[in-house]
Predict the 3D structure of the following.
Amino acid sequence: MPANGSTRAVHTRNGLRRSIVAAAALPLLIGALASCGYGSDAKKDDAPKANVADTSAKKLSASEVRIGYFPNLTHATALVGLQEGLIAKELGATAIKPQSFNAGPSEIEALNGGSLDIGFIGPSPSINAYVKSKGSNLRIISGSASGGVKLVVNPAKIKTLDDLKGKKIATPQKGNTQDVAFLNWIAEKGWTVDPESGKGDVSVVRTDNKVTPDAFKQGSIDGAWVPEPTASKLVAEGGSVLLDETSLWPDKKFVITNIIVSQKFLSEHPDVVEAVLTGTVKTNAWINANPDKAKASANAKLAAEGGKPLDAKVIDPAWPSILITNDPLASTLKTQSEWAVKAKLIEQPDLNGIYDLKLLNKVLKAAGQPEVADAGLGVK
């Protein structure tokens, strides 16, 4: 990632030769540091594209929009859209205030507390938040990604799916999207697990994605049902992919990331929401047309978030397993909610009105793309 705005100090009193050497050497040093993702320059490079509003552009109804996302490859629309300035371009004079989160509950808390307007998030947190608020806090306004979830195991301990019985398998969080999917898979095997404690025929160990690779390396877990890039990090540590979740779905597609908005912000600033959706639709088109450039862009944004990019042996296998899509795949969210009910993590939810796809379909129509459906769960 190139470093911008570097300062070259030329000490004329030390003589022309030293000046020339210093001037020549400094850019090489800065370039080397930036290519590794180290230092402040690697992080600063992202700020102008993501946050600076075009003050000469037409003003929308809000001076800023606060957008949340996770530093995960399954949130590639946000990563690339911010990194390349594709969302900011559509917002014109409205500034983006990006916020990075590590878990769905904290993002929902920010949305409910009024410090976040729009968020990229998984289906389970969306469902839980909508149900708890009795349908008053959010709407799902677009899809973003499908797939990118794998069961990775220690091949020395687990060779077949039946071998999972009696083993310790990690999921990111109790009741999160992967946790629900894994509990449902366990139930379909005829095994039992207490959804609260995770104890049973399989020990479901709720572990933050950031520490799961270390736990796997140390042997405290035998595998994990996790999203990318965590899955490929485990493979890099010697793990083996035993199951790709896409194989469990009839059309090989299921929602892993969608876009939500607070109902208050949607009501007060529909023009801003439409501009964001125009940006995400264009971002998704660019990602799908330029997969290698998009992969590099997402990795540059992750480097700015975490201080260094993902290694090629992690990002190269992870990237193609994720499908970037505008379609919220609403019928699969409905299925996931049924799994959560079956696992006794939630009561039977009323999801009517969780989707509002009117603005997305307006943007898609203008772009010459087909409209998407809400599986009967849209605003009436």
User: Anything to note?
Assistant: The mean pLDDT is 87. The two ends are 47 Å apart (CA to CA). Residues 16-36 form the longest helix (21 residues). The longest strand covers residues 138-147.
